[in-house]
Amino acid sequence: MPRDISNIVILTGAGISAESGVATFRGPDGLWEGHRVEDVATPEAFAHDPDLVQAFYDARRAKLKTVEPNAAHRALAKLDAQWPGELLLVTQNVDDLHERAGSERLLHMHGELGSAWCLGCDARSPFDGLMAEGPACPVCRQPGQLRPDIVWFGEMPYEMERIERALARCDLFVSIGTSGAVYPAAGFVQTARYHGARTLEMNLNPSEGSFHFHESRMGRAGELVPGWVEDLLRENADERT
Ligand code: APR
After folding, report:
1. Which of 9, 62, 66, 145 can pair with 120 through a Cys bridge, CB separation 3.0 to 4.6 Å?
2. Helix or strand holding residue 163 (H, E)
């Protein structure tokens, strides 16, 4: 595949962390850890019942301490370390498994569990602990003003300009473990194709926008991604010799 491939954009979703034991958003029962997504992941839900929302994300944050990156996260970190061209890993995930695996050229378009946003002074700071207890903002010292630094439905994802620039420049766009149900991420494949990129999806089952991809590989990320990375690195090395 690497013929003429220099710049890569990779989009990941909850499916890449599933084998680490992190629940996906849209499980078979349509619930996210027992909740309707709109009851915990909207600004309206936070305004209506902040204690429920804080407790929900506190539990997700605590869960991160019990899980580890899997073979798919590690393979993408290896690709990041060894790929000589441009590479951007855009994750919709709010867990920290990509960075714990070693990925550096990474951005979290939907925010991070390990970050707090102060509604008092607007600062964002690293956070570990229980927000439900109303701790003080480390910047302005006001208590009870922190909210999860998570992009909820109806809010603007982070770093869209940087993502759009990378999509316009990429030769290969790869989507891993996402249902393709949530925009703007679900539309990245079309943007990349419009600019001439080759497109590949790896997912347990076809995503909602599966037909947009040149190629779809169905299976578990932990099994598909390492093989794909090895092939890409080997073919790239072959071309350079
Ligand atoms: N390997 C690969 N794919 C998997 C695996 C696996 N082991 N397990 C599950 N999947 C697939 C599912 O089949 C599904 O298509 O991962 C996808 C996960 O989809 P969602 O739960 O909808 O997660 P995601 O696409 O990341 O959600 C997007 O929605 O709720 C919002 O902001 C939230 O970032 C999230 C966004």
Report:
1. 145
2. helix 160-169
